[in-house]
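The passage that follows is intended for readers who have already worked through the single-chain material. We present the inputs for a multi-component assembly, then the predicted structure in tokenized form, and finally a short commentary. You are encouraged to pause after the input and sketch how you expect the pieces to fit together before reading on.
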Amino acid sequence: MVKGISISEGIGIGPAHWLAQPIEVDDAQHREQGEAALVLVRSLFREVEKDIEQQIESKRGTVANDILGVFEAHRLMLKDPMFADKIEEKIKVGVTIQQAISETENELMMLFSILDDHYLRERANDIKDISKRLLTKLSKGSSAKVQARMDTDYVLLARELTPSDVLEIDVQHVKGILTVTGGPTAHVAIVARSLGVPAISGIEETFLRAIQEGELLIIDALLGQVHLQPSPELVQEYERKVASLAQKQAELESFRQEMAITRNGKRVEVAINIGNDTDALEVKRLGTDGIGLFRTELFYTNREDWPTEEEQYQIYRSVLEEAGENPVVVRTLDIGGDKELSYLKIKPEQNPFLGLRAIRFCLSRPEIFRTQLRALLRASTFGQLKIMLPMISGIEELRQGKQLLAEVREELVREGIEIASKIEIGIMVEIPSAAIQADLLAKEVDFFSIGTNDLVQYTLAVDRLNDQVSYLYDYFHPAVLRLIQLVVEAAHREGKWVGMCGEMAGDPLAIPLLLAMGIDELSMSSKRVLNAKRVIKTFDIESLHDWQKVLEVGTPAQVREILASLA
Amino acid sequence: MLSKQLVLQSRGGLHARPATFLVQMANKYQSKIKVVLDGKEADGKSVIGLLTLGAGQGKEITLVVDGTDEQEAMADMFAFLQQAEE
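Having made your guess, compare it with the prediction:
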């Protein structure tokens, strides 16, 4: 058994099948030179262009715009004189077609790799992808082999997969994917998840290479394990697991297109938490009501300098476009605490979680905050943007944040930039003082979103990362529940909506209680959405008519007991 | 042959998507299109060329258009670059 990183959950059993690698092209087969080689290479370009156009057409509407954008970029790159001319020049001086393509690829990759810009590095990948397409076209022999295998089930093996490889996959027969490269945010992962194909990456190359074509494999992408040459008993065991998973999934699938309405007719919005633009795909795939928490700090980490306004604008815009009519709640930068930036020196703090983080940091560095707000407002015309300020501890911070936002809006209007006329501004309620003063804060916001992860930590004074005390961390603590109730009531008295975006929002045991309390929106990890919808649809308010008991008892254990007995 | 100068004011200049849009636009015309920066030339129909030109914010570029439809091409592309400045 070998471990890897699960990038798309599920279990798959089947014979191994290697993706045809164009590297295996037999150069001897293509001895065409001069005019003949030029004619051949031009026809390769035309054929690949036709393939790309067909792919764009056939996938339109089924995959996110940003993935289609990749193919549009490929088409443009294919027609790029700097690419095509370079290849032709090489052929004219007697280089073989394969070599001409590979050399040009390497030269351009070099040219791009010295440029320090995320977007440009992506373009380097485009060059890699189209070179591979051209070479695959050239080696018609091996691509025919792929076709022949398409009639039976298999587990696809490859060192790495390009987005176009993944889109070529025949979902009917691919039971799983194993690769060496590609993390959870790679295009491969996103496409695999959207196709529902289990996938594991990060497999050690020597191990992967040792797997023979046709060898039986089990890939357990729940645990991130690959079983090679499994015993008949293990295969049987996994076949049972696959069957029970499929049954559970089929039950949940029926909730995909359902709106989340309780039996007594209350409409609850079920939204997802995302951390990057590609996660936004899940909004439509799962039939959710939008994005309840878009964490923006991921654009700030893993880089060497602050992201520019333009970079952020492109990302916000693509998320808003992907979500379409559905609201997108963007949380402004939340760094500090356990989230550090390599290029930002913060004075060492004794208690980082009680220190300069989130809104406090943003207000202390307005130039950084302004850049984000400008990017957000500029993107606002592309969807239903709502802005959420994190770590608000009192009314002053809220007012300062709103003031800055108003200034930025005015500045953009002066520059003649169009901005959505109405953008809701809300706060994340995650500090007890904000919950206690929710009645006052509610008058000055459009919405609340309760962030239970930090609210629990601050209310119970428990560091959930410290394993000596983390047993105390529990969102079913009656003191936390009282605060939640306070916040919900305060919001509703002012006619504002209130959501929740912490772990608790997706917990099937907590959802009935939250519904009884009157919460309007639940935002959770996309994995929990279908089950949450099931819980909401089958929820009967009658069964929880005396839910307020949970506020009177003393311990989390008693709360769980009450909820379990009611369920 | 027509040529016009302008200063790129948008953040990121001719990086990222504007370069892609510019090429898509340039491909609609017969004319040869060049973007010149500090004596370096890039083919206006090449994304690779434009991206590696390094035409960032605040740089002064010259747009050179030459061909049968140069009038329309210049008007269209100049307008786009000015719009992209916002």
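Commentary: Residues 70-83 of chain B form the longest helix (14 residues). The mean pLDDT of chain B is 84. How closely did your sketch match?
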